[in-house]
Recover the amino acids of this structure.
């Protein structure tokens, strides 16, 4: 009896510790985002107040100013949003097409130097983007594609393809080869077996890779700040610099633009969360 009671108490304590650790982890993750959202609705005097104001007031002045004229603290939000959308969507589509093909080739075919190519791709992806910014700037300047959508898309495709190959390679390896062999026996060509049988099974993994590629391009700052100059090519992360001056930073305006950056990413994640969760757990279920 005492032994059962002790076991139940230990189980309750472990459960309480589990929820406490989970709560603390989520708090650490969410606090920066919550700080940004709250400060986008607070007056500048309260954001900069010392000591802090614990009962904040609500205002939309930062959003009104951001969408206002150039002399009123406004920034070309719609141009930045359009640039981010063009660059992120295009680079994601190209990276997925190339990465999915590469991942399938690594998963299904044997060829000379296969391991070396794969390790080389992963090493390239491991290099921080900021370390590549200067070489890319020199090369792109000679090619005449600085401050263009094409240049930024090219850089993001190169950055996302290795990760997409790595991710889709893992998903295609989980699909039994017997599936496409059975499809070919039933009369399908190699392409039809892939498109009708293997791709539907792996589409959750492909969707996960696409989401990660999109979010990487959407939030990237280091390369975009080096490769863009004008309103016609600047993305939203680079637009955040418009709120900085030599001696001051408009924290409220910066937070308001950051909130606008977060919204599309949240909507996309919400819309495809089913595929995202399925893709992230695919390997674990099959393994």
């Amino acid at each position: 009896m005492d032994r059962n009671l002790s076991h139940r108490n230990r189980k309750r304590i472990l459960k309480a510790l589990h929820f406490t650790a989970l709560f603390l982890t989520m708090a650490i993750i969410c606090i920066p985002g919550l700080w940004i959202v709250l400060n986008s609705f607070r007056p500048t005097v309260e954001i900069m107040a010392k000591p802090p104001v614990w009962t904040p007031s609500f205002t939309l002045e930062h959003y009104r100013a951001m969408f206002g004229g150039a002399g009123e603290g406004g920034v070309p939000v719609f141009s930045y949003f359009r640039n981010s959308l063009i660059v992120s969507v295009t680079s994601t589509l190209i990276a997925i097409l190339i990465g999915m093909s590469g991942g399938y080739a690594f998963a299904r075919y044997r060829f000379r130097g296969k391991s070396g190519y794969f390790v080389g791709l992963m090493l390239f992806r491991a290099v921080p983007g900021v370390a590549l910014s200067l070489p890319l700037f020199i090369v792109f300047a000679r090619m005449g594609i600085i401050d263009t959508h094409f240049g930024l898309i090219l850089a993001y495709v190169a950055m996302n393809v290795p990760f997409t190959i790595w991710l889709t390679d893992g998903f295609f390896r989980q699909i039994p080869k017997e599936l496409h062999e059975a499809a070919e026996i039933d009369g399908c060509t190699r392409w039809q077996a892939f498109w009708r049988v293997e791709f539907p099974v792996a589409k959750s993994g492909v969707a996960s890779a696409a989401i990660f590629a999109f979010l990487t391009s959407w939030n990237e700052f280091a390369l975009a700040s080096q490769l863009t100059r004008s309103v016609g090519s600047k993305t939203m992360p680079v637009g955040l610099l418009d709120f900085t001056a030599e001696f001051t930073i408009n924290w409220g305006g910066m937070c308001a633009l950051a909130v606008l950056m977060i919204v599309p990413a949240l909507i996309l994640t919400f819309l495809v969360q089913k595929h995202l969760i399925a893709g992230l757990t695919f390997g674990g279920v099959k393994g």
About this structure: DSSP finds 13 helices and no strands in the chain. The mean pLDDT is 84. Residues 2-40 form the longest helix (39 residues). The two ends are 40 Å apart (CA to CA).
